[in-house]
Amino acid sequence: MDALVETSPLNDQRDRLRRRLAIAAMILAMLIFGANFVVSRHAVLNGLTAHDMLALRFATAGLLLLPSFFLAGGLASCGGLGWGRGVTLAVMSGFPMSYLLLTGLGYAPAAHGAVIGPGTVTVVGIVGSVMLFGALLTKQLVFGVGAVLVGLACLGIAGTHHSSPTIMLGDLCFLGVGLIWAGYPLLIQLWKVDALKATAVVSVLSMLYLPVYALFFFRGFDVVPWWIIAAHAFNQGVLNVIVGLWIWSWSTPVLGAAVAGRFPPMIPIVGTLLAIPALGEIPSGLQIGGIALIIFGLFIASWRSAARPASQAHQSQIPGDTDEKAEPQRRP
């Protein structure tokens, strides 16, 4: 008993430290994801094409994850996921999604990508949670989704009246990104797939694009300075695909799903604000209104675990993220 009493304060201190580290890690992940829209658009506007960025993304992440994740699970079983599930996940978060994202950044402002993608993912994710997992809709959740939809409509109207006709095309690409990407976390949850294993499989399968790139889109290594190529390879393959997802996956079970769900609204804030000094993209009045509505709606919809399983509507527990056990409701 004395030993238990003596170690209890130490355990509490460790828990507080892990929680603080998880909050810091989650903030870092949001900064990485939000800044990627600006960094990628800067690359596209300064010599690199969407195909170049795709090759850097999948070559870097795929080669780094190939030995420890994909081959460890077995080639015959597609890294332990099965080829059907592996290919499906690769379509949703591999080449098609990434191509739409990087193509859209060549036509529309980075701020549009940072808000349209997460906004669409939120709406589709809520609908999918209701249909697949029996989640309940609350007034707060419906209000937040409504604000997101109105904000998306404002951006669409602003795009049709913009001096550049390509804005709408870019926004449609970002909408496609949101529609494709939204199914990825739903299937991860439905199939109970480890996030890092899924990332490894997606990255390795997406390397099938590299021969196509080498044959039809490769322009040589002298189109831009080598340090720019290295920097964007690090940003695309290491920061966004490996580091961002890893710290997201580690932080979520530490904080709990209800608290972790409050961080994604940081993505459009980071992307919108960073695009002003980095790219000189000053949004119009209608665009500012649309962006503000989407950010506001995301905060309202994610501030509490608004969509909850019907069987747990009156309980004080939420599902765990890495297994089927329930974990106590945590507060920040």
Automatic annotation (TrEMBL):
Residues 21-155, 169-302 form the EamA domain. The chain crosses the membrane at residues 21-39, 54-75, 87-108, 114-134, 141-161, 167-187, 199-218, 224-247, 259-279, 285-303. Residues 322-332 have a biased composition (Basic and acidic residues). GO terms for cellular component: membrane. It is a multi-pass membrane protein. Residues 311-332 are annotated as: Disordered. It is found in: Membrane. The keyword Plastid does not apply. Keywords: Membrane, Transmembrane, Transmembrane helix. Its main location: membrane. Signal peptide: none annotated. Belongs to the EamA transporter family. This is DMT family transporter. It comes from Bosea caraganae.
